[in-house]
Amino acid sequence: MNRSDRKKTRIIAIANQKGGVGKTTTIVNLGAALAQNGLKCLLLDMDPQGNASTGLGSFATDRASTIYDVLNETHSLAGTMIGTPVDHLFLVPGSTDLSGLDAELLSKPDRATRLKSLLKPSGASEPTLEGFDYVLIDCPPSLNLLTVNALAAADRLIVPLQAEFFALEGLTQLLATIRQIQGGLNPYLRVGGIVLTMVDHRNRLSRQVAEDVRANLGADVFETMIPRNVRLSEAPSHGLPAIVYDPDCAGSQAYLQMAQEFLQREGYRSAA
Ligand code: ATP
Ligand code: MG
């Protein structure tokens, strides 16, 4: 892949304070798809649940150091990175300890910008992660300090919306948080896209919600919709992204297509 502009690391966060809408499934498969395109990616698991880490084969008991240690400045980011089953995709695992970090950081003046200063030292607009094309940050289902740290560091935000009746609920609050962060902690933050997940094409309500979301949010919404597909939910228990576990299933095909759409939005063109 080639990008028409000069090469720099871009930081993408995925967030939605609603739980179980497909944040982790999306970021793991998007990261794997970008890596399969030859782009060097680093996934940061900022969720105490550690689902992205487990889904990439890193189990809690095997994790020597985690993003918690990096945020506490006892370990370096480089020293905490591990490989994954996907070439070019690296991981900084999450930890249950992260759930206490909110309280621990609260009294610190840099509580909202600690991740940003690790990824973009000296307030630079560009990260110093040599050789990485993308840093992908999985957020917990909350607008807590962990998510704020991710949004303060990110260049782009991807928002997954589950195609169900309450899809847009909570989006107002998320968009208000984004505006607040753009006005202070991070003027570089942009919405990189909204992706509809768990779409059931046979279900009239699901189709209706998809249409409503498109009517309300327009061009920000990815053309590609992720269908409800059981293979996507089976893959993490094998420690593999679905696009590796079963590349041909409908869910994987959708994520591969979404990754192409993402790359087009990012200004990449195929080398072929
Ligand atoms: P949390 O808010 O808890 O972090 P999340 O937003 O990261 O959740 P996921 O963990 O990606 O959401 O998905 C929630 C559950 O739904 C998981 O069990 C996942 O395997 C399953 N799932 C995600 N996307 C799909 C899909 N398109 N079809 C079927 N199952 C899915
Ligand atoms: Mg998750």
Describe this structure in words.
Helix content is about 40%, strand content about 15%. The chain has about 270 residues and is α/β, with parallel strands linked by helices. The model has no long low-confidence stretch (mean pLDDT about 90). The chain has helices spanning about 25-35, 50-55, 65-70, 75-80, 100-105, 115-120, 145-155, 170-180, 205-215, 230-235, 240-245, 250-265, and strands spanning about 1-5, 10-15, 40-45, 80-85, 90, 135-140, 155-160, 190-195, 270. The chain is built from twelve helices and nine strands. The strands form two sheets. A seven-stranded mixed beta sheet has the order 4-5-3-6-2-7-8, with helices on both faces. A two-stranded antiparallel ribbon has the order 1-9. The site of magnesium ion has 5 residues, from helix 1.
Name the descriptors.
272 residues; alpha/beta; seven-stranded mixed sheet; two-stranded antiparallel sheet; globular; binds adenosine-5'-triphosphate; binds magnesium ion
- SSE sequence, one letter per element: EEHEHHHEEHHEHEHEHHHHE
Q: Any low-confidence stretches, pLDDT <50, length ≥5? A: none
- Measured by DSSP, the beta-strand proportion falls in 5-15%
Ligand inventory: adenosine-5'-triphosphate, magnesium ion
Main sheet? Answer: 7 strands, mixed
Biggest sheet strand line-up: 4-5-3-6-2-7-8
**Radius of gyration from CA coordinates:** 17 Å
Mean pLDDT value: 91
Q: Which structural category do the helix and sheet elements fall into? A: alpha/beta
SS field, number of helical segments: 12
Task: Give the termini distance in whole angstroms.
Answer: 8 Å
Give the fraction of residues assigned to helices.
Answer: 25-40%
The total of beta strands comes to: 9
- Shape estimate: globular
